[in-house]
Amino acid sequence: MEFGEKTLSKQTIYEGAILDLEVHQVALQDGNQAKREIIRHQPAVAILALVDDKIILVKQYRKAIDRAILEVPAGLVDPGEDWLAAAQRELEEETGYQADSWTKLFGGYLSPGYLDEYLQIYHADQLRLVDQPLAQDEDEHIELVRLTLDQALDMVNQGEICDYKSFCAIQYWQLLKAGGHNG
Fold it and tell me: What InterPro entries does this protein map onto (predicted)?
């Protein structure tokens, strides 16, 4: 079976700073028609940052879920910006750290049923604090939290860590430790 849908019409109903919302009328492969609501979103990066066998997380308020949560450092890739450069910038802005070693881990789409945002996760190693780090975004209010793997897993179970980029980073760290790697 060949998969696909043909867009018959498209309407942009919202254009924002980081996302656009489109409504598509599509022809399905069986000849029927359907409506698709699609969010177009800038790509993003997330960072598994480890210092002294602890993960660095940021605690911040997320209006979409109306609460503060713990997350791995992350942010948007600016138009034309290199992905690794975006990860390096976000790590410094959000944590005050720079890393001497970077590894591209994996990436993927967060929710491709309606969202085209692609997220790339990096592992930052050999971290050091910067004397005068890049400033945080004006609308960010962040608190740094450092957790052991067991503490991070407990926070996942308690729902304090509840986003998938952080789940994936913590899972990767757990696999690194299980494989006998330093992480």
Answer: NUDIX_hydrolase-like_dom_sf (IPR015797), NUDIX_hydrolase_CS (IPR020084), NUDIX_hydrolase_dom (IPR000086)
Are 158 and 67 in contact, with CB atoms under 8 Å apart? Answer: no
CB under 8 Å to 89, separation ≥6 — which residues?
75, 81, 134
Q: What percent of the chain shows pLDDT beyond 90?
A: 85
Domain range spanning residue 140? 44-178
Are 92 and 138 members of one domain? Answer: yes
Of 15, 81, 90, 138, which is the active-site residue?
A: 138
- pTM for the full model? 0.89
- Active site includes 138? yes
pLDDT tens digits, 5-40: 999 999 999 999 999 999 999 999 999 999 999 999
Residue 109 counted as domain residue = yes
